[in-house]
Amino acid sequence: MGEPLDKQNLRRSIAAERAALPEKQRRADSVSIRDGLLDQPWTQMAGLVACYWSIGAEPDTHGLVFALWKHGATVMLPVLRDDNDLDWAVYDGPDTLAPGRYGVMEPVDVRRGVDAIRTAALVVVPALAVGETDGVRLGKGGGSYDRALARVGPHVPTVALLYEDELVDKVPAEPHDRAVRFVARPSGVIAVGAP
Ligand SMILES: Nc1nc2c(c(=O)[nH]1)N(C=O)[C@@H](CNc1ccc(C(=O)N[C@@H](CCC(=O)O)C(=O)O)cc1)CN2
Ligand SMILES: Nc1ncnc2c1ncn2[C@@H]1O[C@H](COP(=O)(O)OP(=O)(O)OP(=O)(O)O)[C@@H](O)[C@H]1O
């Protein structure tokens, strides 16, 4: 089954805009996103965080992962399975990562299984855009986070990291698409979707 063309077009145009952002801007934005997230009480209280290791022009998460780890949180990062579902393994410093599929760095630590995300107190996810109305996210198209987010309980903060203009009214959605509860942008963290 093909997916809506508007989804593919939106992905392409946001990817192009990200690539066009000057490196300096991307770096400054990533620092603002990181600091806004680290200021949240629910970030500071989270003992186990599911995060991701950014690639390419995504908002940089390397500083965020390092800061969480330094402050004593356990940080899990995704390990992409052959079926595009996400396994999870614990980050234990910059020397414990090795490239996986698509060149994303993944922990070499023991894999905790696809259900490990159920135990996280905070879930930080990548997105190209999020709809403010319903919180539905647009990802790279593997459906990995549609599956992973379906396992997260209703009271766990889920937050997508975006550049400023990537929060839109609504993204083109299919029934399997999952929502996040917050977005973190350079201007700050806000709740999205129905309260
Ligand atoms: N940093 C990061 N880690 C992540 C994701 C992500 O979106 N970003 N994922 C989110 O699910 C999972 C991995 N899935 C990924 C899927 C596609 C691409 C990617 O770069 N795709 C290229 C197209 C490559 C191709 O089709 O050959 C692209 O988008 O340009 C990266 C990761 C888990 N880890
Ligand atoms: N629960 C699921 N089980 C198996 N496949 C799924 C599931 N949810 C979504 N998919 C498949 O994943 C594919 C991509 O979905 P979608 O375009 O929503 O990805 P995305 O959310 O943009 O990407 P990602 O979550 O990897 O960042 C779709 O073809 C869909 O059929």
From TrEMBL:
Family matches, as InterPro entries: FTHF_cligase, FTHF_cligase-like_sf, NagB/RpiA_transferase-like
A single BP term in Gene Ontology: tetrahydrofolate interconversion
Pfam families the UniProt entry points to: 5-FTHF_cyc-lig
Keyword Metal-binding tagged: yes
EC number, as in UniProt: 6.3.3.2
Catalyses which reaction(s): (6S)-5-formyl-5,6,7,8-tetrahydrofolate + ATP = (6R)-5,10-methenyltetrahydrofolate + ADP + phosphate
Residues where ATP binds: K7, Q8, N9, L10, R11, R137, L138, G139, K140, G141, G142, G143, S144, Y145
Binding-site residues, substrate: E58
Cofactor(s) the record lists: Mg(2+)
GO molecular function: 5-formyltetrahydrofolate cyclo-ligase activity; ATP binding; metal ion binding
Keywords, alphabetical: ATP-binding, Ligase, Magnesium, Metal-binding, Nucleotide-binding
Family: Belongs to the 5-formyltetrahydrofolate cyclo-ligase family.
Name of the protein this chain belongs to: 5-formyltetrahydrofolate cyclo-ligase
Origin organism lineage: Bacteria, Bacillati, Actinomycetota, Actinomycetes, Streptosporangiales
